[in-house]
Design brief:
There is one protein chain. The chain has four domains: 152 residues, Beta Polymerase, domain 2 (2-Layer Sandwich), CATH 3.30.460.10; 85 residues, Hydrophobic Seed Protein (Orthogonal Bundle), CATH 1.10.110; 156 residues, Hypothetical protein af1432, CATH 1.10.3210; 49 residues, no CATH class. The chain has 24 helices and 13 strands. The strands form four sheets. Strands 3-4-5-2-1-8-9 form a seven-stranded mixed beta sheet. The chain has a two-stranded antiparallel sheet with strand order 6-7.
Length: 470
């Protein structure tokens, strides 16, 4: 984003509710500004997800001014002001100008001191691009050249980098995440401080690490994940990944180390196509699942590498082992069960290649799962694009043929799972089959038949051919 022209912030960019809060605080005799990420996003021409407000008013004074507030962090000076708009309550965090005391846990200050000076509040913030404030009358308050850094594409700490990262170790990951989101460079002193203090990331909770890692992965520049490795951070939150960067692939299908292949595969995912598809859980969920899958799809290659007598390397069993490792890592990072299930499942199946025929495609959908299968195409394509040119066109052509066949199976109502069978359990009971293992065996034999011959999926045919003979 170097050289990007920024917008000037205008009062109209602020939500009416946020402007009302500023006005009421001003009318009561206090200063107030929108601050932080929302200011940065406005300059970039983006719509902020949240609007944070900073003020010279103390928490108790904010509570006195507004009728509906929630005590969300009084010890740190934060009150959430609830505004009603179109029948809905929307919360705006209002935080008193403050000076942070000593940090004892690499995250929270032991104590905070409220101040009447905006400058004191801004100087405690993490990066210059997040240390700007704005008021419709006072304009942009930029004491640390945040706008200049934003325009130049530079991530720089406010003040002394080591102090900022000692206060909250997660800021090291945030610096890299912002670099990915903004396609920016990390300023040299800030980068050196990250490398020096990387071990302190071990003090940060898995949940907070997960959030920053995921925000980077779903950004437009996931290749920046490499900076986690180069800084030494992955050694402490994802040590399994480090080995991929030094594992070579002496094989005609590859041209990168395993880690570089993974990084290129992250960027090879076709997000524009994904936006056009109606997938279970929607675009945001699918994007997260796919980026996590590519991050881990070859995680087990360092453990499974062998080299044959001709000097060609192989990674036999790496999808199976990789699925196990992925499940373990995602659980360690406190991911939800659905994400663990989907990602580990795709890692397990990512190597599955078969001829582009309807019969084999039906069987693959049955084996991999209907919810997971549409993402299989994206995984295979990204994996292929991150390999060498060897047989690339043939590989991509096979994937394209499968993509064309896939909707035909559903248009023709061909069975791919038990729920699609013309015969249900109740039909077997009516025919005299008792509930139990035998019923399941019969249904699965029927399914095997119709996976091979879709036209056999008729109740009369299936009952005639698969009911037990007296």
């Amino acid at each position: 984003m170097t050289g990007k022209k920024l917008r000037d912030i205008t009062p109209e960019m602020l939500p009416e509710d946020a402007r009302d809060i500023l006005i009421k605080l001003n009318e009561a005799g206090y200063e107030a500004f929108i601050v932080g990420g929302c200011v940065r996003d406005c300059l970039l021409g983006k719509t902020p997800a949240d609007w944070d407000i900073t003020t010279s008013a103390r928490p108790e004074e904010v509570k006195r001014i507004f009728a509906h507030t929630v005590d969300t962090g009084l010890q740190h000076g934060t009150v959430t002001v609830m505004q009603k708009r179109n029948g809905q309550l929307i919360g705006y965090e209002v935080t008193t100008y403050r000076i942070d005391g000593e940090y004892e846990d690499a995250r929270h200050p032991k104590e905070v001191t409220f101040t009447a000076e905006l400058a004191e509040d801004l100087k405690r913030r993490d990066f210059t691009i997040n240390a700007m404030a704005y008021h419709p009358d006072a304009g942009l308050q930029d004491l640390f050249c945040g706008r200049e850094d934003l325009e130049a594409g530079v991530i720089r700490c406010v003040g002394e980098a080591k102090e900022r990262f000692t206060e909250d170790a997660l800021r090291m990951m945030r610096a890299i995440r912002f670099a990915a989101q903004l396609d920016a460079q990390i300023e040299p002193l800030t980068w050196e401080a990250i490398k020096e203090l990387a071990p302190s990331i071990a003090k940060v909770s898995a949940e907070r690490i997960r959030v920053e890692m995921e925000k980077l992965l779903v950004s437009d520049h996931p290749y920046h994940f490499k900076l986690f490795y180069e800084s030494g951070l992955t050694k402490y939150f994802l040590p399994e990944w480090d080995a991929t960067m030094t594992t070579t692939q002496e094989n005609p299908h590859h041209r990168y180390t395993v880690g570089e292949h993974i990084l290129h595969s992250l960027e090879s995912l076709n997000m524009e196509r994904l936006k056009t598809e109606d997938l279970p859980g929607g675009y945001e969920r699918s994007r997260k699942i796919l980026r996590l899958t590519m991050l881990f799809h070859d995680i087990a290659k360092p453990l499974t590498k062998t080299i044959d007598e001709e000097g060609i390397c192989h990674f036999t069993g790496h999808p199976d082992k990789g699925a196990e490792m992925t499940e373990e890592i995602l659980k360690r990072l406190k991911y939800d069960n659905d994400t663990v299930r989907m990602v580990s499942g795709l890692v397990f199946t990512h190597e599955g290649r078969f001829e582009a025929t309807r019969r084999l495609l039906r069987r693959a959908i049955n084996r991999y799962g209907e919810e997971q299968f549409p993402l299989y195409f994206y995984v295979q394509e990204a994996d292929t694009l991150a390999q060498s040119d060897f047989m690339r066109e043939e590989k991509l052509e096979r994937i394209a043929q499968l993509r064309e066949l896939y909707p035909e199976i559903y248009r023709q109502h061909e069975a791919v799972s038990l729920k699609d069978l013309a015969v249900k359990g109740v039909d077997l009971i009516r025919a005299g089959v008792k509930p139990g293992p035998q019923m399941g065996e019969i249904l699965h034999r029927m399914l095997e038949d119709v996976l091979e011959e879709p036209e056999h999926n008729e109740k009369e045919y299936l009952l005639a051919n698969y009911l037990p003979k007296d």
